[in-house]
Amino acid sequence: MWWRALLLSASFMLAAAVLVHYRKDREYATGEAAQAMPVQGIVMSGIIAGGGQTTPRRNPYSDDGYDLGEGRRLYRAYNCNGCHANGGGGIGPALMDERWIYGAEPENIFAAIMEGRPNGMPSFRNRIPEAQAWQIVAYVRSLSGLVSTTAAPGRADQIRGTTPPGMTTRQEPVPSGPPQQP
Amino acid sequence: MASFARRALWTLPLASGLARAEPTAAPPTASPEEDGQWTMPAKDYANTRFSGLDEINRDNVRNLQPVFTVASGTMVGQESAPIVVGDTLYFVTPYPNILFAVDLNAPAGRVKWRYNPSPASSAQGAACCEAVNRGPTYADGVIYYNTIDTHTVAVDARTGELRWKVKLGEYSRGETMTMAPLVVRDKVFVGNSGAEFGARGWITALNTRDGSIAWRAYSTGPDSDVRIDGSFNPFYPQYRGRDLGVTQWPADAWRTGGGTVWGWISYDPDQDLIFYGTSNPSPWNHEMRPGDNHWTNGIFARNPDTGMARWFYQFSPHDLWDHSAVNENIVLDIDWEGARRKVVIRPERNGYIYVIDRTSGEVLAADPFVYINATSGVDLRTGRLQEVPEMTPTTGSVMRNVCPNAPGAKDWSPSAFGKDTGLLYIPHNNLCMDWEPTDTSYIAGTPYIGVEPRFFPGPGGNGGGFFAWDPVARRKVWERTERWPVWSGAAATAGGLVFYGDLEGWFKAVDSRTGEELWRFQTGSGIIGQPTTWRGPDGRQHVAIMSGIGGWIGSMVSHQLDPRDPTAAKGWGNMMGALRDITQPGGTLHVFALPR
Q1: Domain edges within chain A
Q2: Are residues B566 and A90, on separate chains, in Cβ contact within 8 Å?
Q3: Could you report the per-residue pLDDT of B422-465, keeping only the tens digit for each?
Q4: What SS3 class is residue B275?
Q5: pLDDT digit string (tens) for B142-157?
Q6: Which of A154, A170, B466, B467 could form a disulfide with B479 if both were Cys (CB 3.0 to 4.6 A apart)?
Q7: B568/A85 CB distance under 8 A
Q8: Residue B2 has pLDDT above 50, yes or no
Q9: Backbone φ, ψ for residue B571 (5° rounding)
């Protein structure tokens, strides 16, 4: 059937075109990230003295499946899972729920990784390169549905049963107290 | 006299088969006559947790009522024993490890003073299972206890003034301290925690005078570090050889190999030996550490003055399942196959109750007390745990339905020994798990685990229970099943009672002969503490317990972890989420007595 062959080759060409179009440079965009994400100006409070508002910055790594996958790998490689499990938490707080003690914005999470937090979160500065930290930030936000569902992985690889990030309902962030407060 | 009569009546039927049977007993040197106090968490050197008081008994316990409460001001797991010296009760909170001194004179319950050691808040992040504390101990006018940021403090028991404070480890490298010290003569013995962070385990003897280190014995590494020399005389050949704490590990893995000392220390004055357990090796993923991993997961007998090891026995060599071997070793003398033997009895995490000759380290018996499918028994000829070969987990695949699970048949929560009944009263778990080893690497200050687990109740569907064990007949006398694992310690009394608490916050008194529940009280938060009982300055017997959910098992509640992740809290997420709807965090001391 000539028309079937034509249809098949046409769809291949279309797929190839799409792939070429969307293929992303896999280089770490270190410079771009560093410029896009200045570490100053991180707001953790819901109160801004004198009014006004902040404009959270966009994490350049949060909309790409590759970066989320890298974030997931690095989350394990740096033993984040040892304290935060697969998002449910343990020694550290849960990352898959709506409560964020130190803020849910990408730069809040980035700062938590780099600076540490006073009740036990270690500082990973000089351990995790900044570009990798931003990939981890993207993965952490994916655990509570805060990244694009088209980019988040549709399956979870761990032992069982947490909802894959790509199928997680968005948990609207709520500024929260210390973990002891129910 | 009443208690003597009860004791005589009760021990008769236990003495089956022996012509002139003597009851199982704690040696008087390790467990002196009742003085109405409770000055160390385990009550005495023998670790009996038995009180000779019988004012509160099985006939009147139904009238037991609260006398006073004290809020600890903390919201995580409250594991401390409330100890009593004279007219004062002492307890330690979890981080920030505040020592409370509570006046027992009327009107009882006034806080005399608090001592705050101001531990570093960051150290909480190096505590595997919350920044808990298992209590203070007392000797010669001084209270001793440990802080989460690896200090031991000595505080004047009367004034609350600090005598000395010494730093013993580095929390930035995953070391913490959670155990309750033991004092023998002029030394206080303390140990570290942190085998989930690759901490290298040790026990340290400090001079009570000034806190200076008398000796330190590591649980891994060369013999000189482990304090093994020519006087070391273990019963089994697998513990003889040079530097086994190095050679039974991959190169240098012993440096981050665990074997921490976070459980109970007991002491036999007659032989002048202390006994204590060493924790699981690090990491949990066993494929990363071929070898028997000496001297983790075992029991050491040591000379308290020199620290030199006398004998050692390893409960779970080359640990597959985080079967951290730090449980209590109760010092008892027992009729055994026609002879009187000096033993320690040890309800172990791997599911067996061990009877070990405390003069030699020979295992006389190892009887299962829960459903076990990961091992088939203990070979009494070689002393070796018999693993089921097809139950060996491998990296990247899930080993399903492993029983008992990682917290094991019984975690740290201590048993009691009834001096009147000759029975052991044992809180325990009934748990199985799925276990997936994963790759991990050591990064100082971060967890070094390499396993994704999820836990679930074992056969029968109950998470745990509480039973009485006859060590001579080697069987359960009675058993109570509980919905949740029992994470509280036990206390037994000459009044025919045993006290323990559950994770829903119920504090219970049961009949020591039958297990029948005679009284219960809702304390407001889950109980993972240790009950004590003592005579107040008013002459009345009191019972005390700290409530406050938390610890490894209770962190789903206290840290509001997310049960949608079954691996939350290193496996508890799979089964403890429902407890969040039943109890709530908050530490409180509860003290009870009969109405006047």
Answers
A1: 58-182
A2: no
A3: 999 999 999 999 999 999 999 999 999 999 999 999 999 999 99
A4: strand
A5: 999 999 999 999 999 9
A6: B467
A7: yes
A8: no
A9: 115, -20
> Hey, are the CB atoms on A89 and B565 less than 8 Å from each other?
yes
- If contacts are CB pairs under 8 Å, which of residues 196-225 in chain B contact chain A? 196
Catalytic option among B292, B322, B434, B436: B322
Cβ proximity of B331 and B46 under 8 Å: yes
B504 is catalytic: no
pTM of the predicted protein model: 0.92
Please list, in sequence order, all residues whose beta carbon lies within 8 angstroms of the beta carbon of residue A120, skipping any fewer than 6 positions away. Answer: A83, A91, A92, B121, B122, B123, B124, B125, B126, B127
Give the residue on A whose Cα is nearest the Cα of B556.
A90
Is B130 designated active site? no
- The CATH T-level fold of domain A58-182 is Cytochrome Bc1 Complex; Chain D, domain 2 (1.10.760)
Beta carbons of A160 and B196 less than 8 Å apart:
no
The answer to whether the CB atoms of A127 and B443 lie below 8 A apart is: yes
Asked about B280 being catalytic, the answer comes back as yes
Cβ contact B426:B394 at 8 Å: no
pLDDT, tens only, B197-227: 999 999 999 999 999 999 999 999 999 999 9
Flag whether the ipTM exceeds 0.95: no
> A88 to chain B: which residues are within 8 Å by CB?
561-569, 573
The phi, psi pair for B450, rounded to 5°, reads 70, 35
Q: How confident is the model at residue A25 (pLDDT cuts 50, 70, 90)?
A: low
Catalytic residue among B34, B54, B170, B196: B196
CATH topology of domain B2-593: Methanol Dehydrogenase; Chain A (2.140.10)
Q: State pLDDT tens for residues A117-140.
A: 999 999 999 999 999 999 999 999
